[in-house]
Amino acid sequence: MTDENSHATEVRDRWARPENAPALDGIRAALVGGGDWRALVREWTLPWETEHDLAGIPLAGVALGGVDLTGVILSYADLNGCDLSGCDLTDAFLTGTDLRDATLVNATLTRVNAGLCDLSGADLSGANADDAVFSRARLVGTRLAGASLRRVKFVAAELGDADCTGADLSGAVVVAARTAGIILDGAHLEGTRLGALRR
Fold first, then answer.
1. What are phi and psi of 72, to 5 degrees?
2. Is residue 104 within 8 Å of 124, Cβ to Cβ?
3. Using alpha carbons only, what angle is made at residue 23 by residues 101 and 48, rounded to the nearest 5 degrees?
4. CB atoms within 10 A of CB 21
5. Contact, 71 vs 94, CB < 8 A?
6. What is the reported pTM?
7. What is the pLDDT of residues 29-47, one digit of tens each?
């Protein structure tokens, strides 16, 4: 097992421990109900008192539309099918996060680190992901129509059948990426680096 897989397992397993069930329930309820989830995370992470650490959290299918998630660590979290419409994820860490079939319509993903993230089938229509990093991420069949993807890095990403209709990819780096079936109708590609694409 690699160190990265070991870390992913560790951060996911901590939420499954019986002693952490009350913390998980409280944080989930605060996220859904608009409560102060950051205060709960600070209390749960004593003595370190970090308010950003939600790495590995299981939130599949949860409706989190409009929640402020700026700077949050959601690496290796299960957000499969989540509704994150309108959420602010500026500077968030989404490394290895499962966002398959998630809805991120009009979400703010500026400067997110989403390397190894799985966004297959997700809807990012109208999202702002300027300066985000999607290195080695899976965006197969992902809807990116009208999204702002300026200076985004899609290095070695899988973009097969992604719909980038009308998206702004100005200055983006799409290198060593799989792009078979990608839709770029009306996309802005000024200064986009499209080197060594793999079909």
1. -75, 145
2. yes
3. 105
4. 11
5. no
6. 0.93
7. 999 999 999 999 999 888 7
